[in-house]
Design goal:
Largest sheet: 11 strands, mixed
Strand content: 15-25%
Structural class: alpha/beta
Oligomer: single chain
Shape: globular
Number of strands: 21
Helix content: 25-40%
Radius of gyration: 23 Å
Length: 453
């Protein structure tokens, strides 16, 4: 079933020897050999049942950890991965396994991720591989789509982390409204033995009320009642200094990634590490050298006249936090931004990002960002239509490279100092304009253009 399914796929499988298929309806045509069929009411639920039966052992010593939230999932995954690997290295053991929206490593080597959370069969395959290779930890980035469509229904997360929730992913292809998005997100509590929740998240009381009925709940944040509590923090452009009270003990941290918006990600990561009995010194050492591809990657050019930040920020909460970070840490600089909204999905972002960018930025360059079956020019026009008066330049370009180049050249030719934000993709690959084969990413484009302008 599904918009991408064609009966030819089944016919080909039968011709290659398949003897049975599972579907919601009998599929006609094709081979003279008629395979057996199991008819089910919900193919997605059936996929989860079958995947668990085929791949997943009844018992495993491996701790399975799930991270969800509107913003910060990948960053938290990489923080946890760094902490676990530091701990495992000290024990003479191999690295942990992880599945993120950036990369996947089930113990057989790095793979580029295609979805935030893989489809059911692939997800269980990766978990089974990690179990077979005797991995101690598997960290999984859990999307609202994975929860909505039951990809995790037969998993049992030893620990989950709930970062935050905001109005996002609203479209006919994702969630028809916020209620559907919210109800999908909270399903992670249904499949968790214990969870760590951000007490600073909106809807916290409502989330806590539901989660407490499903699993053991602990909280992190700034509240006096939090088990993991932020005591104080300060930031430089590229790092965070934090003092954290963990159940009465103080942990001092210097985290090698900037942005006040990353404080809650750090708190979630150390909460889960604490629950896994990782020593404080290991946590501190690991976070001092954490690196997240495509997140807060900073370039400096023209004797620091131009600061470029490449980041995956792509929704309202991450944009607002990014601009606040820039205003706080670069108060006397003008801001240029290159970004685009995606086609067919998260339609509310066009209004949100249009309004937010025009509120803060002096120059805006709208570019394509996975338009799918929509015209990227129309997406840019719609986004521009929501912008407030104020920016000195609002321009629509036909490629990301062109938009980045315009922003960089404009900053270079100006008499003022600039921060140039390149947002929405980080190190996510895309085709260069006019190229059918050559992949690139915003990080590489910025690096290349800064050498040539």
């Amino acid at each position: 079933k599904g918009e991408n399914f064609k009966s030819e796929y089944l016919i080909e499988a039968v011709d290659k020897g398949s003897i049975c298929y599972v579907a919601e309806n009998i599929i006609k045509g094709g081979s003279a050999h008629k395979p057996s069929v199991i008819i089910v009411k919900d193919i997605r639920k059936a996929m989860a049942v079958l995947s668990k039966a085929v791949y997943f052992p009844d018992e495993t010593k491996m701790k399975i950890i799930g991270i969800t939230g509107t913003k910060g999932k990948s960053t938290t995954i990489y923080m946890l991965k760094t902490i676990f690997n530091e701990y495992l290295k000290g024990m003479g053991k191999s690295n942990c396994a992880f599945i993120s929206g950036i990369e996947i490593d089930d113990g057989t080597g790095l793979l580029e991720a295609e979805l935030t959370t893989p489809e059911t069969i692939d997800l269980y395959k990766h978990i089974a591989t990690a179990v077979k290779l005797k991995k101690e930890f598997m960290i999984i980035e859990v999307s609202s789509q994975a929860l909505k469509y039951g990809r995790c229904d037969y998993l049992s997360f030893d620990i989950s982390g709930f970062l935050n929730i905001s109005h996002d992913h609203i479209s006919p292809k994702e969630h028809p409204d916020f209620e559907d998005y919210y109800n999908s997100k909270i399903k992670i509590f249904d499949v968790s033995k214990s969870t760590w929740m951000n007490s600073d998240s909106i809807y916290f009381d409502k989330l806590l009320s539901y989660a407490s009925q499903q699993c053991e709940v602990n909280t992190y944040g700034k509240a006096e009642t939090d088990k993991v509590k932020l005591v104080e923090f300060s930031e430089t452009i590229e790092s965070l200094n934090m003092k954290v009270d963990i159940n009465g003990e103080i942990l001092n941290l210097n985290v090698s990634i900037g942005g006040e918006f990353n404080v809650s990600n750090v708190l979630c990561a150390i909460s889960i590490a604490y629950k896994c009995n990782i020593p404080f010194r290991v946590i501190a050492n690991a976070l001092n050298k954490v690196y997240v591809p495509g997140r807060m990657e900073i370039f400096k050019a023209e004797n620091d006249k131009i600061i470029v930040i490449v980041d995956f920020a792509h929704n309202s909460i991450s944009y607002e936090k990014m601009f606040q970070h820039v205003k706080k840490n670069y108060p006397n600089r003008k801001i240029a931004i290159t970004f685009g909204c995606r086609g067919e999905k998260a339609l509310n972002r066009r209004k949100d990002l249009g309004e937010i960018s025009s509120k803060y930025a002096d120059r805006i360059y709208l570019v394509p960002n996975i338009p799918r079956n929509e015209d990227y020019r129309e997406i840019s026009k719609e986004t521009q239509g929501y912008m407030h008066p104020g920016p000195e330049i609002i321009e629509m370009l036909d490629s990301r490279e062109e938009g980045i180049l315009k922003a960089l050249k404009g900053a270079k030719d100006s008499n003022e100092n600039w921060v140039v934000l390149v947002l929405g993709k980080g190190r996510e690959k895309y085709k260069k304009l006019g190229s059918k084969e050559e992949d690139t990413n915003d990080y590489e484009v910025v690096k290349e253009l800064l050498q040539s302008i």
